[in-house]
Design brief:
The protein is α/β, with parallel strands linked by helices and about 500 residues long. The chain has 4 domains: about 15-115, Rossmann fold; about 150-210, no CATH class; about 215-330, Cobalt-precorrin-4 Transmethylase, domain 1 (3-Layer(aba) Sandwich); about 335-465, Tetrapyrrole methylase, C-terminal domain (Methyltransferase, Cobalt-precorrin-4 Transmethylase, Domain 2, 2-Layer Sandwich). Helices cover about 35% and strands about 20% of the residues. It is built from 19 helices and 17 strands. It has helices at about 20-35, 45-55, 85-95, 135-145, 150-170, 170-185, 185-190, 195-210, 235-240, 255, 280-290, 310-320, 330-340, 360-365, 370, 390-395, 425-435, 450-455, 485-495; strands at about 15-20, 35-40, 60, 75-80, 100, 115-120, 120-125, 215-220, 245, 265, 295-300, 325, 350-355, 375-385, 405-410, 420-425, 440-445. The protein has a 5-stranded parallel beta sheet with strand order 3-2-1-4-5, with helices on both faces. The chain is globular and about 90 Å long. The protein starts with 13 loop residues before the first strand and ends with a helix. The structure holds S-adenosyl-L-homocysteine (SAH).
Length: about 500
């Protein structure tokens, strides 16, 4: 180990920052945060530092660095752009055994400032020993995504109960099990849901009962449309903690691959027309696993509350007193629009968006066709491709112009994404021509025409008039996860050539 890590208690201890610019600001802010009595020494202060000095957050020592500035300092940071001043600070500080750090000169420092993840009272500090600070920052970013912000309150709660936990579980192994439960079960879930009082009550209840029972819970997670990059951090964390994952067929393999390796995965796929698992069957499975004390993730394509029957699932859980959380996902309409370069609203073309489903004939009969046929609105239609013909006819019959542009987005956000464009009058025919398959989303409205010029992801839109449209492959980035180096290089070359 190159450096000895230590967490210094600087509360009410004088520390010195030399320099009055942006770097000094950052250093001073972190030190003030830790409760230190910060003196900033510099001929002049940045406006922010001056404001802090005015408000008493820091003290200003005006002028160029002088040795006596070090008199009462526990540590000193050189944050000027003057190497000679830094050298002087380092020599004097070391002679006096004061810990010293000067920016941009790791070799001369007697302490380094790590990259920090703050979940007070938990602090995680990462250092590369000065060799690769950028790397330390990247590691910090990775860890940030893994650690929920409820970690801080959880640690505070654990601290408050620490004595009682020790009394209740004198045996070290039992105590560890209790902390594990506290860290990842009911209490953590309640804190994540912003229910601090209930979290405390649950922890106390567990302390009073013979064994801390895992109560079992369900997290309804929206997996997004397919691109794993569109999963939320919360969704990712839930997948990391799950014992059991009940997922739809629509959830992409890439998203499932992010789940904890030893989680049990159960596909509860429903295919339009013939259902593999009935909705009641899904409820029964969720209840069975949660009641056995497991952490269940119910993983759904897109968003769980948009044509996802998430509401019914929560009702079933509520009826049986199972604790639940909901993590939203990026719904197909939002994702397909973004990945096809179609703004769902646009000041010139559409003032509203409607999300609707038209999976079967029966769903058609419940739709408000005159309202759907109005202009200057965008329809995002979640649908089975078999219904396009009927949809087209009804909409035109109710007055929507046959010339209204559409875009059918098949496998939106996935590597295989295809976008087929045209006008309402050609909708069913174009879909047949290109053998469009499920999952596909229909975007209908004036904005759909923008796909022709704004598309950026995957293959260009398949336009009826594609032959005349100038292709612009140099604007597109390749679909993700394709390590096709020659193609990338060609692409970069094309961009550089303009
Ligand atoms: N809860 C989901 C929708 C479930 S209904 C969500 O919020 O996205 C299933 C329909 O969603 C499919 O028939 C299709 O119309 C649409 N869909 C889901 N994922 C899609 C994708 N990657 N590309 C295109 N359409 C998609």
């Amino acid at each position: 180990m190159k450096l000895y890590p230590l967490f210094a208690d600087l509360r009410d201890r004088p520390v010195l920052v030399v320099g009055g610019g942006a770097v000094a600001e950052r250093k001073a802010a972190a030190l003030v945060d830790a409760g230190a009595r910060v003196t900033v020494g510099a001929p002049a202060l940045s406006p922010l530092l001056a404001q802090w000095a005015e408000g008493g957050r820091i003290r200003h020592r005006e002028g160029r660095f002088e040795p006596q500035w070090l008199d009462d300092a526990w540590l000193v940071i050189g944050a000027t752009d003057d190497a000679a001043v830094h050298q002087q600070i380092v020599e004097l500080a070391q002679a006096r055994r004061v810990f010293v750090n000067v920016v941009d000169d790791a070799a001369r420092c007697s302490f380094h400032v790590p990259a920090v993840i703050d979940r007070a009272p938990i602090t995680i500090a990462i250092s590369s020993g000065g060799d690769a600070p950028m790397f330390a920052r990247l590691i910090r970013e990775r860890l940030e995504t893994l650690l929920d912000h409820s970690l801080g309150p959880l640690a505070t709660l654990a601290a408050r109960l620490r004595k009682r936990i020790r009394l209740r579980h004198p045996d070290m192994a039992a105590r560890r099990r209790f902390y594990e439960w506290l860290f990842s079960d009911t209490v953590a879930g309640l804190l994540r849901s912003g229910r601090a009082a209930e979290a405390q009550a649950a922890a106390e209840h567990a302390l009073a009962s013979p064994v801390a029972q895992s109560a079992g819970s369900v997290v309804l997670v929206g997996a997004g449309p397919g691109d794993p990059g569109l999963l939320t951090l919360r969704g990712l964390r839930a997948l990391n903690e799950a014992d059991v994952i009940l997922h739809d067929r629509l959830v992409s393999a890439e998203v499932l691959a992010l789940a904890r390796r030893d989680a049990e995965r159960i596909e509860v796929g429903k295919e339009s027309g013939h259902h593999h698992t009935t909705q009641e069957g899904i409820h029964a499975l969720m209840l069975e696993h949660a009641q056995a004390g497991r952490r269940v993730v119910r993983l759904k394509g897109g968003d769980p509350f948009v044509f996802g029957r998430g509401g019914e699932e929560l009702e079933a859980l509520r009826a049986h007193g199972i604790r639940y959380e909901v993590v939203p996902g990026i719904t197909a309409a939002v994702a397909c629009a973004a990945y096809a370069g179609i703004p769902l609203t646009h000041r010139d073309h559409a003032q509203s968006v409607r999300l609707l489903t038209a999976h079967c004939k029966a769903s058609h009969d419940t739709l408000d066709w005159p309202a759907l046929a109005r202009e200057r609105q965008t329809l995002a239609v979640y649908m089975g491709v078999a219904q396009l013909e009927a949809f087209q006819q009804r909409l035109i019959a109710h007055g929507r112009a046959a010339s209204t542009p559409f875009a059918l987005v098949e496998n939106g956000s996935r590597r295989e994404q295809r976008v087929i464009t045209g006008t309402l009058g050609q909708l069913a025919q174009r879909a047949t021509e290109h053998a469009v398959q499920s999952p596909a989303l229909l975007i209908l409205g004036e904005v759909a025409a923008l796909a022709g010029s704004l598309a950026w992801f995957g293959a260009p839109p398949l336009d009826a008039a594609a032959a005349q449209a100038p292709a612009m492959p140099d604007m597109r980035r390749p679909a993700p996860n394709i390590p096709d180096l020659p193609a990338r290089e060609a692409l970069l070359g094309a961009i550089h050539r303009g």
